[in-house]
Amino acid sequence: MVLGLETSCDETAAAVVRDGREALSDVVSTQIEIHRRWGGVVPELASRNHVLQVMPVVDEALERAGVRLRDIDVVAVTSGPGLIGALLVGLQVGKSLAYAAGKPVVGVNHLEGHLLAIRMDEQAPEPPFLGLIVSGGHTSLYAVEDYGRYRLLGATLDDAAGEAFDKVARLLGLPYPGGVEIDRLARTGDPKAIRFPRGLNKRKTNDFSFSGLKTAALYHVQQHGLPQGQALADFCASVQEAIADVVTRKAVAAAKEAGLPRLVLCGGVAANSRIRELAVERGAASGIHVHVPPKRLCTDNGAMIAVAGYETFRRGGGAEGLALNANPSWRL
């Protein structure tokens, strides 16, 4: 029985997971309204809100699961990567709970949590598979050879896909979180209206780059003004297509090159409708089975940390004990 805590960015989350597969509870407190007025996450505000929300969220997770702290076997907590202040809140609470209950505590890499979140989906494939992580802070390709064995095949060289969505949305005056708004508006837009650049398109590489897309979007607005009505929908559809085109094409190509027959979408931006649609379409055309998990497993949650914590503990992890510390730049 694992209690998982997640506070790496702007979601305060806790969950109780049994045997690394069954979520008995999964509670998430969002900070969207707090950060919306600023157009993005303010680290200090995120940390302060975690302080206020983390214990009520933990209490609710235990209550929904029908267990007490003494029933927990392991406490798993995100210790990186992420915002240092936010990470420290969850980390200190996790260590305190483990100490009070006399239970072991294990640190979890946030990216491993995303890769293993699919274990709570009955239809999820077992390793080996290629994991495409697309989120606000990461756009990465990992060969998941087994649980605990991950090989980085490609990553963003500058901005992540989620950051590109949010920055373009802010440029357009759309509310935070911008990626959700762009996805909504793009449904009635023409994805071919504007040919935005595809980063690193002509180089044989698994890496990503979205800074050029942001710059192109800025120049287009400067030259043509802020789009309105149908023009706004076309603009959003074109930006979304540029991002979806790159991430799905590179992911499918990397899976084929690595000899991996399965591709799994992970991370908050994997909830984007066009990325999900195009990944399945391109996977089918290339003989790659694409697993698209439920959206609730894509966004940050405590259950994915509990699952990864279970696997870490099963492999003998957790030796740091109460000396466990945050690592905001921890590479998987």
CATH architecture of the largest domain: 2-Layer Sandwich
Here the CATH topology of the largest domain equals Nucleotidyltransferase, domain 5
Portion in beta strands:
15-25%
Number of separate domains: 2
Major sheet details: 5 strands, mixed
Helix/strand order, N-terminal first: EEEHHEHEHEEEHHHHEHEHH
Poorly predicted residue ranges: none
Give the % helix.
Answer: 40-55%
Query: Structural class of the secondary structure composition?
Result: alpha/beta
Outline: globular
Q: Spell out the CATH superfamily of the largest domain.
A: ATPase, nucleotide binding domain
Number of H- or I-type helical stretches: 11
Average of per-residue pLDDT values: 96
Task: Just give the CATH class of the largest domain.
Answer: Alpha Beta
Gap between N and C termini, in Å?
24 Å
Tell me the radius of gyration: 20 Å
Number of strands: 10
How is the largest sheet built, in terms of strand order?
3-2-1-4-5
InterPro entries: ATPase_NBD, Gcp-like_dom, KAE1/TsaD, TsaD
GO molecular function: iron ion binding; tRNA N(6)-L-threonylcarbamoyladenine synthase activity
Binding site for Fe cation: 110, 114, 300
Organism: Vulgatibacter incomptus
Question: How is this structure best summarized?
Answer:
Helix content is 45%, strand content 19%. The chain is an alpha/beta fold and 332 residues long.
Please provide a written account of the structure:
- This protein is an alpha/beta fold and about 325 residues long.
- It has 2 domains: about 1-115 and about 300-325, ATPase, nucleotide binding domain (Nucleotidyltransferase, domain 5), CATH 3.30.420.40; about 125-290, ATPase, nucleotide binding domain (Nucleotidyltransferase, domain 5), CATH 3.30.420.40.
- The chain has 11 helices and 10 strands.
- It has helices at about 30-35, 45-65, 85-100, 110-115, 160-170, 180-185, 210-225, 230-260, 275-285, 295-300, 300-315; strands at about 1-5, 10-20, 20-30, 75-80, 105-110, 130-135, 140-145, 150-155, 260-265, 290.
- A 5-stranded mixed beta sheet has the order 3-2-1-4-5, sandwiched between helices. Strands 8-7-6-9-10 form a 5-stranded mixed beta sheet.
- α9 links the parallel β9 and β10.
- The longest helix is centred in the C-terminal third of the chain and has 30 residues, at about 230-260.
- The protein is globular, with a radius of gyration of 20 Å.
- Its cofactor is Fe(2+).
- Its EC number is 2.3.1.234.
